[in-house]
Structure formats: structure tokens, C-alpha cells
From TrEMBL:
Residues 1-28 form the signal peptide. Keywords: Signal. This is Cell wall anchor. The keyword Signal applies. Pfam families: DUF2334 (PF10096). InterPro entries: DUF2334. It comes from Dactylosporangium siamense. It comes from the Bacteria. The keyword Signal applies.
Length: 533
């Protein structure tokens, strides 16, 4: 039984990580505080979003992290421009469809031009968390115009957010509080979601009034597959694409398939999915390595796809049954290192360093030694050669092993592949165009409920509801089909969102059947990765 890293390991925000900080490695980006990007495939060319974030004080890096996450999401709808709120110029928002402001720093100095343009009401503004008091103080008639005012942060334990009839989780470790309100005109001020306290008391999670949608917290930390992050993801439709019709698509990816795979297991998975008319993707690493002989009585093993013709035949069979192959790294491990387990392919990280601590938790350590574009490119090209020699068509989609890499690695892959199918890690400096900080204490992980074009410039096909893990490991609980189906049900709240999971073929087909048919029973239609990109 292989040791595995849960897909949820990368879904957190720097403020919630308790990770060791390695020596940082810089990735040089253009030295400008304003960045722009194009929308994801299928987005509206006429939709343009301005993302503003805080960048002062000791947690300025966190403002950029949140700005990055918001920017990734709005790319689903169209092009974007992002910069610190302090750089806002009078009339700037007129050029955009909407504005998203992430207020992460208490009393961040906000330009009066931004306050005045927001109050003018000509463009939709989504405002998160801090500094709403600066807006109300700038207006002589805020309460009369908007029908409410802020009251103060409620720091009681709130573990549930109800949004459009769906209950979503909220981690109670998030102790920053949620803004409470005094509503004077319910006809103007409409609640956006409901925060439910431990004692059953409720108050609005956010308020929509006129052009202003205010959220009482930043729903970009402690995120999980059924978290209130999904409410924010859907709320962006209301602002940027309000005419979007409900549509619910699903995806499945068969994970960690290498030269050591069991051909019979691969064929069984393909037969089942084909019988249900379910297209699927297969994540393939092309070279198997066990340099210390962990699985071979101490004798090292090292072989490629070409040396396992039955596996290659099974992969071609999977293609004939509706499967698409993607490149899942090269060896899915690194040299003869325990990174973090035993150096065996599919167990370990390939492009990032990690270890298991005394509490049996996987700890991210940072970029690999001698991290470089040359190293990444060499591994990609070596794998492509393996594919060619095995008689397989070159892949067009990439997935980092265990969803982990440095900013430099992501940028390098963007020059080699237009599409990734995964979750991702993001670092301060990428969005702002400065020197990238690869320290794990300041990185964030993010998944997506729909396709985006992230700040690295790559189209990202989402995986967002996890994977089956019959046994608990590394402080992660067991995850069974019922859990993934429950996650998919919560994701129905995203009006044009997906339920995307991955599955290991050595688990057989029973769990796969339960998961696929349970998700279909919720009204989802399975599609290929190509349909999302």
C-alpha cells in the first residue's frame, strides 16, 4: 500500500500554516506593482475586473496572497488587473466591469479617490472585511443610501455559513471574527449568506446593497472542499456574470499511473467508466524508481514505460475507452531522498521538498536544491522522450506530483504546457511583480470550483472535492465515497461549478462506482478535461 499525500494538504492559507521556513529562493519577475492577465478559456472578453489588495504593515505579504487568490478566481470570468489599493487613481474603476477589494490590513490607508468612486455607485464593488469604516465615514448619508451600517466584529465561534439554502463549513480556528451589522432598511440591505453561531444565533455573513457587496470576512483562509469559500466563488457570478445559467459538470482523474501499474486494474477502471459513458483523465509518470529497494528486498529498481509493454498497452486501451493521458511529473520522486517518505515513485514529491514531523504531519520545506528552469525542463523532456519511445502521443496537460512546486517551476511549466489539471501553490511576489518569496510560511494553496487562468498564466482545470482514502494517514482522516458525494452536493451552490475528484486504480472499482454514480445522482454530468480548457 503506497503512502499518499492528501489533496487537501495544499488547501490552506499562509496564516494557518505551521511550517518550517527554509532559506528563500527568489524568482525574478517584472518590477511593477500593477499586473494584468487574460481570462480563462471560454470567459467573456468584455468582462474586466480590477482587484485591489492591501500591502502595508507587517502582514503586507498576506494582502498579496489574498489578492492572488481573488485574482485567480476572477480570471474565470474575464481579464483582470491587480495592484495595491494605495495605488488607486481617481476614475480608474470606470474601465472595469467590477472591482474586488480585499481588506486584509486593519486601517490600511485608502485613497479618497477609491472611497469616492465606490460611493458614486457606477460600478459593482465587492469589499471584504477591513476598512469599511473608512467608506462609511467618507459618506454623509451612508445609512440612508445603503440601509445599514457596520456594528463591529463578532468573534464568537462560527462553524457554519448558510448560502442560498446550502450549509457550508467554516473552520472555528479562524478567530478574526465576522463583521456584524445594524440594518435600518431591509428593502435596501439584503443579507448575503448567514453566519450561524455555536449557540444557534445568526447574523448576516455579508450585505448586498446597491452597487456594494460587503463580506464581513475574507473567505480565503482555512478553505476546504465544502467551505464558505464556495459562496464567494459563486457570488462572483452575481457580480461578473449574473445571467449565467446553472450547470453542473463533473470530472474524474485516474491518479499515479506509472510503469509499475497493474494493467488489469487499469483496464477494469477503463471498462467501468466507459460503461457509464464517463470520459476521464489518466495522470502518468513515465519512469519508476525505487533507488533503495524499499519494495524489492533492498535491490534498487529503475525502469520506464517502454520496458513495461503491458502497461503501455493498458494505457492505449484506456485511451480507446475515453481516457486522456496527462504528464504527472517524470519520476514522481526525487533522487534517493526520503521526500518525505522513502524515495519510491508515486510516494514522494518531485519538485518540492517535504518531511514528516514527530506528530506524523507532512511539512512543506520549500524548493528543491538547485531549483531552476533547466532542471524542470530537463525532467519534462526526459519524460516526453519516455512517452515517445513507448509509442504514446505527447501529453498536452501537466500535473505536479502532490500539487507542489516553486513559483519558478510553475512559470517554467507555463512555457511548456498551456494547461495544468490540479490545485496549486502561490507565493508573494508573483502578483506584485517583485522578488518571489518561496518560504512556506507565506505561501498559499488554492483549489478552484471552475476553470481559471492563474497568475502564472496557465489554464488550470479544477480538482476540488478530493480523493478516496480508505485509511487515515498523516493526521488526515479516512475519506470514503460518501464524503466526496457530500462535497459534490455542497458544490452545487456554485451555479456553474464542477465536482472534480481523483482516484487510485489499485483501490479497485467498487469505491469508484459508488463515487461516480453518487455524483451523477446529484445531477452532475461527467465531461473531459478538454471540455474545461
Amino acid at each position: 500500500m503506497r503512502k499518499l499525500i492528501s489533496s487537501l494538504a495544499a488547501v490552506t492559507v499562509a496564516a494557518s500554516l505551521a511550517l518550517t521556513v527554509p532559506a528563500t529562493q527568489a524568482f525574478a519577475a517584472a518590477p511593477t506593482a500593477t499586473r494584468s492577465g487574460t481570462g480563462a478559456p471560454g470567459s467573456n472578453a468584455a468582462t474586466k475586473t480590477l482587484v485591489l489588495y492591501d500591502n502595508t504593515g507587517p502582514y503586507s505579504w498576506l494582502g498579496e496572497d489574498y489578492g492572488t487568490m481573488a485574482t485567480n478566481l476572477v480570471s474565470h470570468f474575464g481579464s483582470w488587473t491587480a495592484h495595491p489599493v494605495g495605488a488607486y487613481k481617481a476614475g480608474e474603476m470606470a474601465a472595469y466591469s467590477a472591482v474586488v477589494y480585499v481588506g486584509s490590513t486593519y486601517d490600511e490607508p485608502l485613497p479618497t479617490a477609491f472611497l469616492d468612486d465606490t460611493l458614486a455607485g457606477t460600478k459593482p464593488v465587492v469589499w471584504m472585511y477591513n476598512n469599511i469604516w473608512q467608506l462609511t465615514a467618507r459618506s454623509a448619508d451612508f445609512v440612508a443610501k445603503y440601509g445599514y451600517t457596520w456594528k463591529g466584529y463578532d468573534t464568537s465561534a462560527v462553524s457554519t455559513i448558510e448560502y442560498n439554502g446550502t450549509k457550508m463549513t467554516r473552520d472555528v480556528r479562524n478567530a478574526g471574527g465576522i463583521m456584524d451589522y445594524v440594518i435600518s432598511d431591509p428593502a435596501k440591505a439584503v443579507a448575503v449568506g448567514t453566519a450561524v453561531g455555536a449557540d444557534g444565533t445568526t447574523f448576516p455573513w455579508g450585505i448586498k446593497s446597491g452597487n456594494l457587496t460587503y463580506l464581513g470576512e475574507i473567505p480565503l483562509s482555512y478553505i476546504t472542499s465544502n467551505d464558505r469559500y464556495l459562496a464567494f466563488s459563486d457570488l462572483l457570478y452575481s457580480v461578473l456574470a449574473p445571467q449565467t445559467a446553472a450547470r453542473h459538470r463533473a470530472l474524474v482523474r485516474i491518479e499515479d499511473v506509472g510503469p509499475d501499474a497493474d494493467p488489469a486494474e487499469l483496464r477494469a477502471v477503463a471498462d467501468y467508466l466507459s460503461s457509464k459513458n464517463v470520459p476521464f483523465t489518466v495522470a502518468v509518470y513515465s519512469r519508476y524508481r525505487d533507488p533503495k529497494g524499499v519494495n524489492n528486498n533492498g535491490k534498487a529498481e529503475d525502469y520506464t514505460l517502454r520496458q513495461r509493454p503491458l502497461v503501455v498497452s493498458a494505457l492505449k486501451y484506456m485511451q480507446s475507452k475515453g481516457g486522456t493521458l496527462l504528464q504527472h511529473g517524470y519520476t514522481h520522486q526525487l533522487d534517493a531522498l526520503n521526500n518525505p517518505y522513502d524515495g519510491v515513485s508515486a510516494n514522494d514529491f518531485e519538485f518540492f521538498m517535504a518531511h514528516v514531523d514527530a506528530n506524523d504531519a507532512v511539512i512543506y520545506d520549500g524548493p528543491v536544491k538547485n531549483d531552476s528552469a533547466l532542471n524542470v525542463t530537463a525532467r519534462v523532456l526526459a519524460s516526453r522522450a519516455d512517452w515517445m519511445l513507448a509509442g504514446l502521443k505527447q501529453p498536452t496537460i501537466f500535473e505536479f506530483p502532490h500539487y507542489a512546486a516553486s513559483a519558478l517551476d510553475y512559470k517554467t511549466i507555463n512555457s511548456l504546457y498551456s494547461t495544468r489539471y490540479e490545485r496549486g501553490l502561490y507565493f508573494p511576489g508573483v502578483l506584485s511583480g517583485g522578488t518571489v518569496d518561496n518560504s512556506t510560511a507565506r505561501m498559499v494553496g488554492q483549489f478552484f470550483p471552475y476553470t481559471v487562468r492563474d497568475v502564472y498564466g496557465t489554464t488550470v482545470v479544477p480538482e476540488n472535492i478530493g480523493n478516496i482514502e480508505p485509511e487515515p494517514f498523516n493526521q488526515h482522516p479516512a475519506v470514503l465515497p460518501a464524503d466526496l458525494i457530500a462535497n459534490a452536493k455542497t458544490n452545487l451552490a456554485v451555479r456553474d461549478g464542477v465536482a472534480s475528484f481523483f482516484y487510485h486504480p489499485y483501490l479497485g472499482t467498487d469505491y469508484l462506482k459508488q463515487t461516480v454514480e453518487g455524483i451523477q445522482g446529484l445531477g452532475y454530468t461527467f465531461v473531459s478535461a478538454a471540455a474545461m480548457s
